[in-house]
Amino acid sequence: MLRLITFRFLFAFVTLWVVSLVVFIAVELLPGDACEAFLGQMAQGQRLDNCRVEHRLNEPAYVRYIAWAQGLAQGDLGKSIKRSKPLESVIGPRFRNTLILGLTAAALGIPLAIFLGVLAALWRDKKADLFISSAAIFFMTIPEFITGTLLISFFSVYLGWLPGIVIMRVDAPIIEVFGQIGLPVLTLMLVMVAHIMRMVRSSMIDVLASDFVMMSELKGLSKTRQVLRHALPNALLPAINLIALNIAWLMGGVLVVEVVFNYPGIGRLSVNAIADRDFPLVQALALLMASIYVGLNLMADIATLLLNPKLRTRQGAAQ
């Protein structure tokens, strides 16, 4: 098992290195000049040359990549061209906002998805199962921007219960953030709950038909104990990776939701950075999102290895 975990760490490291290379090349291929976009009508003469020298845009691409990689290794993300600030100070508050949005949606959505998945499995092919499964398929097929727009129309415009657009400072207090994120969280939850619920339902149906669950029923265990003590832990094992993928999507792929609701997170910042041709910021954000995605997948793989009873049995037999 230790060998497998070590391999997962090495694979994650190599993946991030490849991602950093791909991100750098992709940013290099973007049309436009960062300094020209930053200076606007003043992008000429000595001023333009000084900007390119300051941000090392006059150097060969491979030299800038090596310098960028060395800075990353030392924890230095670089400096924003458009905002003339260290990238840590630009990204930090917005990353906090995305973190609040994603973790809130995950904390509410994952338990709800597991509950609905178990419920649908226990009532398989009955009206409750058909309703839950149909709703899940519906929300899985609708793009997030349409879901967000529909929620704004209903809860904000028609009912007037929740704010449709987030209006707050980037560094607003957490209490103020929670007061604004009702509809963005609901939009994220609907898609996430649909995916996880279907996986839990499918896995739960397979586990309920297994021999050890039937044996626990023959022993006279109550239905509640059969589900919570024996079936659910085994049903969640294959769903761990999917849950991690959904959290990774929440943390790194909320771009559409943040734009729809004007939410000041890293998704909206990414759109602005690309529009501004702020290449150092684009690189840092892309690598941050990739790191979140790879890190969560790594944790899911390790959790699956540690919780897999077959691997634990083999390890005990080897010892």
CATH architecture of the domain at 90-275: Orthogonal Bundle
Q: State the helicity in percent bands.
A: over 70%
Number of strands: 0
What is the fourth-level CATH superfamily of the domain at 90-275? MetI-like
**β-sheet strand percentage:** under 5%
| Molecular shape | globular
Distance between the termini: 12 Å
CATH topology of the domain at 90-275: MetI-like fold
Q: Label the structural class.
A: mainly alpha
| Uncertain regions spanning at least 5 consecutive residues | 313-319
Give the biggest sheet.
Answer: none
Layout of strands and helices, then pairs:
Elements (H helix, E strand, L loop, with lengths): L1 H28 L4 H6 L5 H10 L6 H13 L13 H36 L4 H15 L2 H15 L15 H5 L3 H27 L2 H8 L4 H14 L3 H13 L2 H6 L5 H10 L3 H29 L1 H10 L1
Helix pairs in contact: 1-15, 5-6, 5-9, 5-12, 6-9, 7-9, 9-11, 9-12, 10-11, 12-15, 14-15
What characteristics describe this protein?
MetI-like fold, mainly alpha, disordered C terminus
What features would you describe in this structure?
By secondary structure, this protein is mainly alpha-helical. The chain has helices at about 1-30, 35-40, 45-55, 60-75, 85-120, 125-140, 145-160, 175-180, 180-210, 210-220, 225-235, 240-250, 255-260, 265-275, 280-305, 310-319. The radius of gyration is 24 Å and the shape is globular.
